[in-house]
Design brief:
By secondary structure, this protein is α/β, with parallel strands linked by helices. Helix content is 52%, strand content 13%.
Amino acid sequence: MQDKIFIGLVGEAGSGKDTVAKRLKKKHQAKILTSSYLLKKALKVFLEEIGRGDYIWFVKALTKKYGEDIISRAMLKSMHEYQGKIIVFNGVRLPSDYKYLRREHSYLIYITAGAKIRWERTSKRGEKCDDAASFEEFMAMHQEKTEVNVPEIGKKADYFIKNNGTLEDLWEKTDKIMAKIIKDHSGGN
């Protein structure tokens, strides 16, 4: 059995993926990878402020030139290069992300929440310059190519977290899932 545990996190913007990733990093010393990190690193060369629309445009340009799976291939390569027992791909969004993640013995966790709750969370966090978008603009962004597959991929997840509650509820659900994953990965012992 392989030594590394590969975990994919899928979910809509504001669902709690980053919070789950931070929990896994803190409690399990997981190494966290995001496709947005790779994209942000490149976009920072050209832009002072990066919005969700900039990421979407960049992904479209890359995939048009290098193929639909260019980001997924880069993520899989990065996952294998990371040192550590638990490697988390935070932000499974495309069918190719799912396909490449499933080439490994991996686990997929779908984190979701109601649309209004997700919008309120993104509005408050201010990570991207367009996080202050209206609810209608927020919902329109979820019709973009990088977002429309999330619910469908989520249906294929091994584990599901409905994150409409408190932070403590989310941590409890995450910890229970991790206990199952670690047990499964060690052969049930």
